[in-house]
Amino acid sequence: MAKLKINWQHVPLYTLLFMFCWPWLIKLGLVAHTSNTLYWFIAVVYLNYMSFVLSIAKGHRLKDGIDPVQAVWLFVLSNILLVLTFATGWQMFDVYGTSAGCTNNTNFLDSLYFSLTIFATVGFGDFLPCNADGKALFIAESLIGSTHFGIFITLIFSRVIFPTAEKA
């Protein structure tokens, strides 16, 4: 029986791409657009994010794992894809609005702006979640956004502090 060998250098990219593609299944109508779908959306993003982080950590400790330059690029790419993923979620589920009220938000730029302010933990307050579903999505994005930077700094510096031993 052949043993499955995983190339850990490619897994982070695959998990990021799947995380970004998932909301489009809803947008294309392949998945129903309900309140339960929002919670599945959050769960799938979290599962993909955790597999992304764990694959980085696993690959980081292997001799053929990622180097710090690759980690920085993955950090930048993951920031972009996470913000785009959540922006797509904000727009599709339409659970945010202004203080004047929640209306049908069809402007993707507003969704992207709102997602970026949450992810970066800036929170200007010009947009806010409208209901319990919006609050759940807000919590999900803010938890990932606030921990994402710390995780990658830890992964990069762990390579410097605990370098991998070369085999003779």
Query: Into which percentage range does the β-strand content fall?
Result: under 5%
**Amino-to-carboxy terminus distance:** 30 Å
Mean pLDDT value: 76
Residues in helices, as a percent range? 55-70%
The number of helical segments is 5
Could you give the count of β-strands?
Answer: 2
Helix-strand string: HHHEHEH
Radius of gyration, CA atoms, in whole angstroms: 18 Å
Overall, the morphology is globular
Structural class: mainly alpha
Major sheet attributes: 2 strands, antiparallel
Strand order of the largest sheet: 1-2
Polypeptide structure, described:
The longest helix is centred in the last third of the chain and has 30 residues, at 132-161. Helix 2 (35-60) packs antiparallel against helix 3 (68-93) and helix 3 crosses helix 4 (108-119). The two termini are 30 Å apart. The chain has a two-stranded antiparallel ribbon with strand order 1-2. Helices cover 66% and strands 2% of the residues. It has helices at residues 11-27, 35-60, 68-93, 108-119, 132-161; strands at residues 96-97, 128-129. It is mainly α and 168 residues long. The protein has 5 helices and 2 strands.
